[in-house]
Amino acid sequence: MTKLEIKGDWNITKGKLKQKWAKLTDDDLKYVEGQQEELLGRIQKRTGETREAVEKALKESCSTCGCK
Asked: What is d(CA 2, CA 21) in angstroms, rounded to the nearest whole number?
């Protein structure tokens, strides 16, 4: 994924990510358009997951809530 595009109900996506990684906080998941790389980095740092794993989780969370 070269550009992370998150649209729709971000609160649903945040909830799904928090279920997957309980360590994540609302501050970790602050999404600001144009700062996708920072969001990925914060999630990676908090969870210890690879970039690919984080991107996959975001895609899955977005696809199940219909925000893509």
From this structure: 23
50-58 contact pairs (CB < 8 A, 24+): 55/1, 55/4, 57/17, 57/20, 57/21, 58/4, 58/6, 58/13, 58/17
| Other Cβ atoms closer than 10 A to 55 | 17
Q: What is the pLDDT of residue 1?
A: 36
As a whole number of angstroms, the distance between CA 13 and CA 17 comes to 6
State how far the Cα of 23 lies from the Cα of 18, in Å rounded to an integer: 7
Q: What is the chain's pLDDT, residue by residue, as a tens digit (68 residues)?
A: 334 455 557 778 888 899 999 999 888 888 776 788 888 899 999 999 999 999 898 888 876 665 54
